[in-house]
Specification:
Helix content is 95%, strand content 0%. It is an all-alpha fold. The chain has one domain. Helix 1 packs antiparallel against helix 2.
Length: 85
């Protein structure tokens, strides 16, 4: 009986550790996405400054999109880290 309980506890511990590792991996992926969107946002801002009126409008929309995606990815990364703990 004791061996069965120890085996069950060990299995549950390993399962929890695997879930935590998956959440940490997900958090890292989301953080990478957030960083990439932040880079794309800055590039769109730069292009908007150098563009004419239409290009400025297009690049401002791109910048806004990447800003929102960056924030969303950062929030998801934070949530994944909370779930891992």
């Amino acid at each position: 009986m004791n061996k069965t309980l120890i085996a069950l506890a060990t299995s549950l511990t390993l399962l929890a550790a695997g879930t935590a590792n998956a959440q940490i991996g997900k958090a890292a992926s989301e953080a990478t996405d957030a960083a990439q969107h932040k880079i794309d946002e800055k590039q769109a801002d730069s292009k908007a400054k150098k563009s004419g009126p239409v290009g400025k409008a297009v690049n401002n929309v791109k910048s806004g999109y990447h800003k929102n995606r960056s924030k969303s990815s950062a929030d998801k990364a934070k949530q994944s880290l909370k779930n891992a703990g």
